[in-house]
Amino acid sequence: MPAEQMAGAGGTAPERRGGAPGGPHHDPQPERGAPGPPAAAGNGSAGSGGRGLDRIDRAILRLLQRDGRASIRSVAERVHVSRANAYARIARMVEDGVIRGFTARVDHERAGHGASAYVTLKIVQNSWRTVREQLLALPGVEHIALVSGEFDVLLLVHTVDNRALRELVLGRIQSLPAVLGTQTLLVFDETDQAPELPD
After folding, report:
1. 130-140 burial, b for 16+ CB within 10 Å, e for fewer?
2. Is pLDDT at 7 greater than 50 in this prediction?
3. Phi-psi bin for 33: left (phi > 0), alpha (psi -120 to 50), beta?
4. Which DSSP symbol is given to 156?
5. Per-residue pLDDT averaged across 64-75, rounded?
6. Of all helices (H) and strands (E), which one includes residue 120?
7. CB of 76 within 8 A of CB of 86?
C-alpha cells in the first residue's frame, strides 16, 4: 500500500511515517517636508507596556488592512490627523509589533501554484519550537499554527502541482524526526478575506 493517500472529496486519509516591517509597497515615511515621528503620538497611540489602541489607531489599521500601499497623506486625511501624527502612529505600531508587516495578497493559482492543502501533523511532545523552525524553512509553507485537538500542528501549503505537494509532504515533512504522522486535506476552492478590527 502507498505510504500516503491524498484526501478526496469524500473525506481525508491518514498518512503515517515509519515509526512556519514594512513591505516594498508601503514604507511609512513622512512625505517631503513633513517632520519625522515625534517622541510620542497623542491620543493613546498603540503599543506595548500597557498602551492600547485608540479609535484613531484602529481606523488606521482598518485602512491599511484594505490597502497596505496607502500613502501617509491618504491615511492622515481619512482619519483626520496630521501626516506627522499618522506617520508616528504607524511607525509605533510597527515597532511594537501591532503591525507585523505589509504584504501582497496573492492569487496562488494565477501565480503558478496549482495545488493547495491543509496538512495536519502529530509531533513529539515538547518539539514544537524545533518543528516550527524546520517547517518555516520548507518551500510553499504559508501558515503554521500550534493547535489543540487530535493533532498538534496545522499547515497551509501551496505547491506547483500535486506531484510537488506529494514530495513536500512525503519527502520533506514526514522526514522530520519529530513528526509522528500527517494528514493532508486538499483545497478545491478558497476565499481569502482579512477580518477588520471593530470600532
Report:
1. ebeebbeeeeb
2. no
3. left
4. E
5. 86
6. strand 115-123
7. yes
First to last CA, the chain: 55
Is it the case that residue 82 has pLDDT exceeding 50? yes
Residues 185, 156: Cα–Cα separation, whole Å: 10
Phi/psi of residue 186, nearest 5 degrees: -65, 140
- DSSP H or E run through 15: strand 13-16
What is the distance between the alpha carbons of residues 136 and 172, in angstroms, rounded to a whole number? 12
Q: Are 23 and 104 in contact (CB under 8 A)?
A: yes
Cell numbers given for 186: 486538499
Specify the amino acid at residue 129. Answer: R
Q: How many CA atoms lie within 13 A of 59 on its CB side?
A: 13
Instruction: Answer for the pair 79, 111: CB distance below 8 angstroms, yes or no.
Output: no
Sheet holding 179-186, edge to edge: 13-16, 179-186, 115-123, 153-159, 141-146
In the numeric block, the cell 498602551 is attached to 51
Question: Per the structure block, which three cell numbers stand in for 86?
Answer: 499618522
DSSP conformation letters of 99-165: S--------TTTTT--EEEEEEEEE-TT-HHHHHHHHHTSTTEEEEEE--SSSSEEEEEEESSHHHH
pTM value > 0.90: no
> Residue range 178-186: average pLDDT?
96
